Amino acid sequence: MPANPYTKSMLVWTDELSVSVVEIDDQHKELFARINRLFGALDASAAEVELRTLFSFLEEYVVKHFGNEERYMQDYAMYGYADAEHHQSEHRAFIRDLREFKIDLEGTDPGALFIEEFKRWMHNWWMMHIEHVDKGLGRFLQSAFPLLGRKQPL
Asked: What is the value of pTM for the model shown?
């Protein structure tokens, strides 16, 4: 039986991805679950209405998650999170690109190459963003408020 290419692009949560802030880690786990549902629907050539629903569901959650991270940045701005502007610009670029992919997916019957490109982009973006940007926010928040990783959301 040939290997399933879908499993290669699934987003899998590991402890190495933790930013040490419970609320952000939990949201990343939920994002991975939603992205994987969308990947599964794309691989299964789901009906357009299902794809639109999953895309909208993901898009809404991404906006909520980014808003939450940015709220942390604002709430603790007095401690000087130096990467805030760059972090927020990455969020804006992701939302812009996600909407472009959504338009492309809605405009045509996406081919396998397009779907693989989309999945690769999503996978790479989230892995790189968490590893190189969100972890920096986590370190900043831990230094500003060391108990944050063990506390309930604000």
From this structure: 0.85
